[in-house]
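Hi there,

I know you've been waiting on this one. I reran it after we fixed the sequence typo, so this is the corrected version. Both the input and the resulting structure follow.
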Amino acid sequence: MKLTKTTTILLLILGAVAVVSGVVIYNATSSVPSDEEILTEEVGMSNVDEALFMNLASQIDAIRFDEAFFSDPRFLTLVDIRVVVVPEQVGRKDPFANLSGIVPTQ
């Protein structure tokens, strides 16, 4: 099979675009530091797990909960509405078997 001049030029351009795109994508992904690297550099710890734990712990420390909520009259008037669930017999041994008293139609 012989390629025409136009087809050859198009294939070369397509190949060049693919190579340039690959280089750009590789450089973009390799130059961005990972979260683990950022945490390790900021905290100054060599163990990445420790750095992640310290980061999460610092976020949790900032959480505050107002305990006055428990003395609110609206909270105190809440009623427990739980109902005891009585265990029942599980279904039939063969759920696809004919029911007794019913004649199957064909």
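Quick highlight: The CA atoms of residues 92 and 99 lie 10 Å apart.

Best,
R. S.
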